[in-house]
Structure formats: C-alpha cells, structure tokens
Amino acid sequence: VVREAWLFLAIAFCFIVLTALAFAPLGQKLGFLIKKHAPLAGCSICVAGAMAGAAAFSAMGALSLRPEWWFIAGMAPALYFSRKPAVALAVALALTIGIPALFFIKSEKANWSTYQKITLTQMRDYTLDGYERLVGYELYANKDFQEFGLDLSDKSMDQFPKLNMFRKFYDAPYAAARPKEVLIIGDGMGNAAAAALRFGAQRVDVVEIDPVIAEYGRRLHPEKPFEDVRVHIYNADPRSFFMRAVIKYDLIAFYMPDSKAVSSSKSSLRKENYVYTLEIFQEAARLLNKDGAVSVSFLFERPWMMRRASLTLEKVFGHSPEKLGGGIFIAGNNGFGEEGGAGVEKRRAGVALPVDNWPYFYAEKKGIPVAYRAVLLLVLALLPALIRFSAPGAAKRLNGQFLFLGAAFMLIAARSFSLSALLLGAAWSANLLSITSALLMILLAILTAHFVENIPKSAAYAALIGCLLAFYFIPAEIYFGMNFAARTALLPLIFGAPMFFAGIVFAILFRDSSDLKSTLGSIITGAALGCLLEYSALFFGLRSLCLTALILLLISAIPIFNKHEAAP
Q1: Residue by residue, what is the 3-state secondary structure of 409-433?
Q2: SS3 297
Q3: What pLDDT band is residue 173 in, cutting at 50, 70 and 90?
Q4: d(CA 551, CA 412)
C-alpha cells in the first residue's frame, strides 16, 4: 500500500509539472501580448479567442474526434508566433504527422464520445455441447469497466447457463413490479430494456447520456432491444429529462448510471450529475402512476453504498425498500418493503444522504479523501516554484487584492457551473452553454468597463456581493417548477449576473493597475488557490462556496474601503 501511495504521488507530481511546463510558454506569450495592447482591449481579445475555442470544442465534440485532432487544433495556432520558418515547419510536421502517428500506434481501437474513450471486447463462452459462441460484449469507459451487453434471451439461457446470474439481476425489478410503462435511467447498451420487453412492457423509455454507448447497443446488442418499436431512447442527462417529463410510469429503474465508479469510486467522486440525490428520487416519485415503484440496481455491491441508497428511498417513500437480492432495491406507492417505524432515524444516523447541495453519492462520508488531500498538498507545495518558473519576479510582488479576487472568482465560477448543471443537466451541450454564457458575460463586463470609465469600484463590489448573497439564500428548488425553456431563458440572469459583476470588478481594477505583470501573476495564483478551496464543498456542500467566495471578496475590497476612509 505504501509503495502504491508513493507511486501515485510520483505520477501526480509528473503530471502537474508537465502541465505547467506545457502551459507556461503560452501564458508568458499571452501576458506579453496583453501588455502590448491597452489592458482591457487585450483582455477582450483573449476572451473572444476563448469563445472561439469553445465553438471549436463544440464542433470536435459533436464529431467525436480522437485526441490527436484536439492536440492539433490546440497547438497549431501557436505556429503563428514562430519567427523562424524552419522551426515552424518542424512543429507543423510534428503536429500533422507525429502526434497522429503516436496516438494510432499506442492506442487500441476505440471510439471517442464527448464524454469518454469507449472500447469493446467480445465475450465468448462454450455451449453445453462444446461449441464456442459470442454471448455479448464488455464495454469499457476510459479503461474502466462500465457494463455488459449480453444475450440473456431464453434460448441463450438454455445454451449458456452461466449467464443466468446476469439474467436474474436485470429481470428482478420487472418480475417484482410487472410494469407496462417503464423508464430506465442509464441502460447503456440495452440489457435492462431487453428485460422489460421480456416481461411484457408496452412502453420503455431509456435515458442514456452518452450517444456512442447507445449506438453500440443499437448495432451490437444480441437481443436488439433498441430496435423494438416500444423502446424510445433519449440522449439526455437524467435530471434534465425528469424536469421535462410528463408521462407517468409504473416503474422507474435506475441501472448503474455511473457504474464504473464502484470499481474506482474516487474517479467519479466529484461528478455532480445529481443522479442519486434525494431530490431526483422525489422527482421520480412524482412521475409514478398510482401503484408505481422505483428500483435501484448496482451490479457491484459496497455495503455503505447499499445502505445510502436504501435510506434515500426510505426517506422518499416513508418505508424501507424491499431488497430483491444482490444490490437491487425497490420501493414505491404499492407498498414494497416495510414501514420505517421508530428505528428510521437511528438507521439514518451517521449516513450522509446525497442531496443537491452535497451530491457526492460515491463519497463514503463527508470530507476530502486521503488521495485528494495528498494531491492538494502536493499542488500547494509546488505552487511557489511553478509561479517563479512561469512568471519570474512576479512571485515577489504578489498583490493581495488580486490574489483574493482571483480565488473568489474561481469559487463563483464553480458554484455557477454546479447550479447550471442542476438546472439544465450535465450533458456536454449544457456544459458548453454554461461556458459560453460565462465567457460572454465576462466579455460584456470588459467592454462595459472600457466604454464606461467612471463606474465606482464600491458599486461594482456591492452588486457582486448582492449576487453572492442571492446565490446563497435563494434555493434552487424555486426554478424546478419552471419548464425547460424558462430555465434556459433565465440562465443569463441566474448564471451570468455574478460572472458579469465579477468581470466588472476585475476589469476596473485591472485597467487601473500600474504593474500588469504582478497583477496577472496574482490573479493566476489566486485562481489556483480558489481551485484548491473548491474541494471544501466535499465537506461543507456546494452552497458554502458562496460564503467562502464572499469572505475572499470582502478581504480583497479592504484597500478600496481604506481609500474611501482616507479621502478628505
């Protein structure tokens, strides 16, 4: 264990240092170019370039391009800055030939979705009479096992009795509920849909966020469930689908929406996809018919995960769920399970139920895991050296006002993005909309500060503080009653207002700064510290980021208020 821990830290060290080495020259060049222009003009050009990058990200993501093309698109513009034709030619050849060749040589056959690298391997078995046959596929996401796509038909069970354990797992909720209208969350390649059809479901709606996985299921699943006219596939985030759904269901089945996390729970610890929170199960209960039920199925069991899922269902339905075997629970309006009784609160003691403010289902308890703490401490230890390397001399002249402001801005952005994911979903298109909205608000703020020169700094700070207080005190639940179009229309106000006023504060102070090198170094250093402070949400919840940002913001405002007091 000790050896593995040191190896993990060594890999993290190399990754951090190499990332800094890769971006330091670009950052230095960026600072030089900003200094050549009027400060706000240079910043507005940078933000416009970032928006162009977001558009390119959208296009490449939609085309499911491989990583080598992302590297080429990201590095090719750097050729513009090369003053030596021979160097530019060598770099161009490396980008257009070397990087693709390296990836094709080192990479196995895989498809790249907008979310992950996906690979398939065949599963073969021997029939009772000794013949080897294809029985399905194993699907891996980023080299972690994700799920199976198996032939679990009656004919296959006769030939391959070893598969019966998987058949029981997928069939269990439908055998218990006998539903006609079914909603499946996270079916992937289609095993659950095939099970629902075997039990006579008349309508099966499948929500699968990754279109590449769903397409694999459509083409390759042995039972072809996605080709059945009763099955409807929705490439969407589960939370956003629930907010738009109007159909009532007899059974809503959650099938391992992020099952790879059970093999490495830290890999998905901070995926704020709100799939297993108390609120989403309450949304599911709203979509049930009179005798409807909700089931949760985990292929791999961990006791604390099972307990958390069981207690969350118990909280929603008022009685403990029925365990159907393995990692399968079912509860609903038709009385599955038993009444909670007097022992409910005792059973919940010490168990942190996942809620929208703390959506980390895969965290065993509140707090920052040891592995995360180790990496955060490593980053803190390396940060001074990385700053000195990236911006020589800037570390000696760090400006406290910009340092705290940079940290506050990162926390504001983190809270804004998490709220956007809650209201619009965690699909890549929603994330792109959030990023583009943030950049647009920042660009508008810079242009406003450029053309309106007499904006009081205290007024800009007051507006930003007001937005943070609204962020903290206004519950997100008030938006859930709105339709999806209304929530999307409100995004610029909900999400953009804090980013706009934060941009105003930055732009005014940046415009009036007499030492741009120190200012940029201080902002970047503060942003790095803000990224580290963001992990406090694993203990205190996402709303706490607003309070932390507010404290940092008030500290950064001290020089302004001191000047007001010193003025005659």
Answers
A1: HHHHHHHHHHHHHHHHCCCHHHHHH
A2: strand
A3: very high
A4: 12
Radius of gyration of the chain, Cα coordinates, nearest whole angstrom: 26
Sign of CA dihedral 282, 283, 284, 285: positive
Cα 521-18-55 angle, rounded to 5 deg: 70
Order across the sheet with 111-112: list the strands: 111-112, 117-126, 132-141, 144-150
Burial class (CB in 10 A: 0-12, 13-18, 19+), 452: exposed
pLDDT tens, residue by residue, 448-486: 998 888 888 889 999 999 988 988 887 777 766 666 677
77 Cβ neighbours under 8 A, 6+ residues apart = none
Cα separation values, 201 from 197, 229, 238, 268, 427, Å: 5, 12, 21, 32, 28
pTM of the model: 0.85
The helices-and-strands tally (H runs, E runs) of the chain is: 22, 13
| 381: CB partners within 8 A, 6+ apart | none
Two tokens, residue 414: 């983190």
Collapsing DSSP to helix, strand or coil, 332 comes out as: strand
Phi, psi of 5 (to 5 degrees): -65, -45
What span, in angstroms and rounded, lies between the C-alpha atoms of 273 and 422? 8
